[in-house]
Each structure stands twice: as structure tokens, then as C-alpha cells.
């Protein structure tokens, strides 16, 4: 059994609840333990994962959040930089699945958050499981 930390940026609570449901279901059905940590926004997720990884209490991580385009360039920063920082952490060998939605509008977010439809939370959990499996395969 492995221990996973879901780090969620709780900007849109009802969407996060669905994304977390999908991620949690994927992880617990595979026999793993799950905790959830909440941060203000997607830009805080990579730092929170880095700090949690240093504690060595968790085997893998799932980033959960929703970034919906507004009127300014801030969307590109929040969406792009959170993804870039998460990618950098995975390149350091940390098993992270990225379930941060980066969408144009609420309708796109609803479809992707819903575990019964595109289930992007579950998809991100599966990615974290795959990276953890690779790490254990290459460690031996
Ligand atoms: N607009 C969204 C944000 N913005 C907040 C940033 O993520 C960050 O918390 C702030 O810039 C302070 O450092 N975050 C989301 O997760 N989703 C958004 O749509
Ligand atoms: C993704 C964002 O940062 C966005 O929600 C902010 O909206 P705006 O660009 O209209 O300030």
C-alpha cells in the first residue's frame, strides 16, 4: 500500500469536489491511502508538493485545481507556471499526476471534473500511480 497526498487549489469548490472524488476513487480502489491538503491557488500547488515531498511521508501526489480564463494574461501565468513547476518536480523523481484543469469556461470545466464524464481527477491519479510504479521498477 502506498500513501498519496492530493494537493488541491480550492478556487472552485464544487469542481474540486468532483475532481477529488475521481482521484480518491482511483487511488483507494488500487488499495492506497489518501490525504488531502488545500492551498489557495494553483500557483501554490508545486511549492506545497515540494515541501510535502521533503517530509518523505508520501509516495506520490495528485495536483487538483481549476484555472478558468479571465480577462487578463494571468490565465497563462497560472496555467503555464503551475504545469511547468509540477513537471520540474516530476523530473526530480517525484510521482505527481497533474489534475489542474486549464479551461476557457465553466462548461468545459464541468465536463472534465465529472468522474462520470472525462474524470480528469481520476486520470491524474492514474498518472501518479504509473510514475510510482516506474520509480519502483527502476529503483531495483
Ligand atoms: N485565477 C485562478 C487562480 N489564481 C490564483 C493563483 O493561483 C495564486 O493563488 C495567486 O496568484 C497568489 O499566488 N488560481 C487557481 O487555482 N485558479 C484560477 O482560476
Ligand atoms: C486564471 C485567472 O487568473 C483568472 O481567473 C483571473 O481573471 P482575470 O484575468 O479576469 O483577472
UniProtKB/TrEMBL annotation:
Annotated CDD domains: Lumazine_synthase-I (cd09209)
Binding site for (2S)-2-hydroxy-3-oxobutyl phosphate: 71-72, 112
Active site residues per record: 74 (proton donor)
Pathway annotation: Cofactor biosynthesis; riboflavin biosynthesis; riboflavin from 2-hydroxy-3-oxobutyl phosphate and 5-amino-6-(D-ribitylamino)uracil: step 1/2
Enzyme class per UniProt: transferase
Example GO BP: riboflavin biosynthetic process
Record's keyword annotation contains Transferase: yes
Its EC number(s): 2.5.1.78
Catalytic activity, as annotated: (2S)-2-hydroxy-3-oxobutyl phosphate + 5-amino-6-(D-ribitylamino)uracil = 6,7-dimethyl-8-(1-D-ribityl)lumazine + phosphate + 2 H2O + H(+)
Annotated positions binding 5-amino-6-(D-ribitylamino)uracil: 11, 42-44, 66-68, 98
Keywords: Riboflavin biosynthesis, Transferase
InterPro entries on file: LS, LS/RS, LS/RS_sf
MF term (GO), any: 6,7-dimethyl-8-ribityllumazine synthase activity
Coiled coil: none
GO CC terms in record: cytosol; riboflavin synthase complex
Job of this protein: Catalyzes the formation of 6,7-dimethyl-8-ribityllumazine by condensation of 5-amino-6-(D-ribitylamino)uracil with 3,4-dihydroxy-2-butanone 4-phosphate. This is the penultimate step in the biosynthesis of riboflavin.
Classification via HAMAP family: Lumazine_synth
Family per record: Belongs to the DMRL synthase family.
Name the UniProt record assigns to this protein: 6,7-dimethyl-8-ribityllumazine synthase
Organism, as annotated: Qipengyuania atrilutea
Lineage: Bacteria, Pseudomonadati, Pseudomonadota, Alphaproteobacteria, Sphingomonadales
GN (gene name): ribH
